[in-house]
## 1
Amino acid sequence: MPLFSHRSSASSGSAGSAPLPSFYSAKPVKPSKPFSAFSSARIPWPILVFSLLCLLIGLAGTLFAISAIRRNQPLPIFRCGTSEDTFRSFYSSSDSGKLGDDSNKGLVDRPKLLGFVGIQTGFESGERRSALRSTWFPSDPDGLLRLEQATGLGFRFVIGKSKDVKKMAMLEKEIEKYRDFMLIDVEEEYLKLPYKTLAFFQAAFKLFEADYYVKADDDIYLRPDRLATLLAKERSYSMTYIGCMKKGPVITDPKLKWYEKSGHLIGNEYFLHAYGPLYVLSAEVVASLAAARNDSLRMFNNEDVTIGSWMLAMNVHHEDNRAICDPRCTPTSIAVWDIPRCSGLCNPASKLKELHKIGMCSKSPTLPPDDI
């Protein structure tokens, strides 16, 4: 039979009647292949339910990610207990300024440094900090970061706390402006300097992984590049105590400045110890101090004597270096201060600026390691 013959049969009906559609033909018509394939490809309901469930989970995850990105995130705070490094807290924020493409490298929980230098300061020392920031201590976070990258040394002003609300408010403003502080949980008081010094070493050890930890006062003129050269020297002693070493009579008269109430435990003369304005402890020594139990170390009236007594009890090597207590700027001076007239510079706020104008202080070349 010829193909499509059913169409001619359908058209032979009575005249005037509308032709019937092909599906009314007396002969059955097989459906085309496309229609047959569509009708037979039914998706099993378990697969359909599983697909819808995956779609819903994907949409929920996308919405959660968008909301998390748009939510205001708190800035990371680099802390050791209640001690805080305000510098890294600033650089960890997403909207802080960057120094090149690698400015935020190393801003981790415990960065590795050649040395960490804590500039001990107080609430009454605002003029000293201002003078330092106008001389050898950078006055902005980028400058401080550049100094760290150039020398391998980290620098922070170290300060405790005060019950005076106004003092704390002023400190907060200064922190907001400069971001160059380490805050430690010790009452800021002259008679508690030994406690502050121990708290500094403990916090510094937990916040920074350094080969050396340096305690410095805010009234000395320092050459960071030369200090880095000194610390980079190879040493055969892992437990090292570097400073301008001294001995002297024990002051037992309460009316005198350096009175020592526990002088009877020492005798007539002090043991060998470093002057207080600047000294260095190696990492292994500081690790022992960081692990010390509360109240397990004896505290004397004077901070430098206190540290010296601890060093005497440890198997440390005393390294005497007069370049870190030079009374004038020289080609070899690392730190300059008015020894022995003052514990630091006399009139430091003005003297720091005067020294910085002297080329021998601020512009003379860094020494090679063998010259120190």
## 2
Amino acid sequence: MVSSDSVNSRVETLASSGIATIPKEYIRPKEELINIGDIFEQEKSTDGPQVPTIDLKEIDSENEKVRERCREELKKAAVDWGVMHLVNHGISDELMDRVRKAGKAFFDLPIEQKEKYANDQASGKIQGYGSKLANNASGQLEWEDYFFHLAYPEDKRDLSIWPQTPADYIEATAEYAKELRALATKVLRVLSLGLGLEEGRLEKEVGGLEELLLQMKINYYPVCPQPELALGVEAHTDVSALTFILHNMVPGLQLFYEGKWVTAKCVPNSIVMHIGDTIEILSNGKYKSILHRGMVNKEKVRISWAVFCEPPKEKIILKPLPETVSETEPPIFPPRTFAEHIQHKLFRKSQEALLNK
């Protein structure tokens, strides 16, 4: 049976209750509020730097010059920004639309139905429907609900956790995860070559075909009566190797670039790709894991489909690869497992939150 407490804890419930002001635990600290503005106005702006768009159409071209130009652009975006819009990435518009429709249809269900899939962080059951994934020591909450599950490899996923409604959810999401896995291989190959490594090296270092995990998180950001006071997801870098993001063409992604928050444009049929901490560590900081956050608004629901490509938690020691280290470029990251890296980030975050109280 679904408890009224869990239903009431959902941001969607708050958003649809008719409140004009948001509860204090969702209000961001003063230092953050000075740069939270109208996301629609910010997305229209053409001033300042823009997130690069990388066309992958020629990534495997038989023409060496054409192929190298495409790969060089991808590498440059990974070095300069650590985030980019990918177009002509090889995943069909039809499949992406099916994924978006299926995810939206799940979130359109009554909350009581969604609660059947509720996770339970306290008991370690992290897959499923939930809220406040990044609750921190300051007690601040984020304006989002989400659905989280492992999507790939096939033998490691638990389909009993995946939504049974809508009917197309499992098939569309499984197909999309499989195609993203192939895209990850292509990208990792180019990033390896960009470091002067053999093309399969980075993929091997993050777990290879057998053990690199693709974790799907559908972020649901309801309309917010005071978007100038809240964030959908607070500023963070991704711990993953790579993150791929689809969205419903409602702006909200901001990147901290050269000391300022830059709003990502909505590029039709693109997939946003982030370089995560894992690749930043392996490359000894040559590729960037950029600080980013999710904004909310009072007009439109925003939904994003983030797929995190993660190495196995305990099996691999993440540290700068020997080829990326020299006398003039010593290692800037200590050796850690992926699990230790996550714990380190959580500890640092809780310490900062306590200091800022």
